[in-house]
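The instructor's notes for this session suggest beginning with a concrete chain rather than abstract definitions. Hand out the sequence below and ask the class to guess, before any prediction is shown, which regions might be ordered.
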Amino acid sequence: SINVKKMTAQYFNTLDEIDQLNLVFTYGADVAQRNTEEHKITLFQLFSFYVKIYSSGERWLYAIKAFDDLEGLDIYIESIDITALF
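After discussion, reveal the predicted structure:
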C-alpha cells in the first residue's frame, strides 16, 4: 500500500511505472509541456514535488522522473501560464 501522505520525489522514483502513473493522473496537475527533437516532456506538480513524463512517437511512455529542486523548473518558466493566478 502506498502512503501518499508521506510521498517524496525520492520515494516516487522507487515505485513501478504503473503506480507512478496512477499517482500522477489521480493527484497531479499538468503544469507545462515542451518538445525536444526526441521527446515530448510533460511536467506535472504532484504533492510537494514535480514529475516529468517523457513520451515519444514510438512509445507513449519513454521515461518518468520526479524531482524536488526548483532548478529543474528553469526550462519551463516561460511556458507556465500563471494568468489564472491574477
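Then share the key points. The mean pLDDT is 87. Residues 50 and 72 are 9 Å apart (CA to CA).
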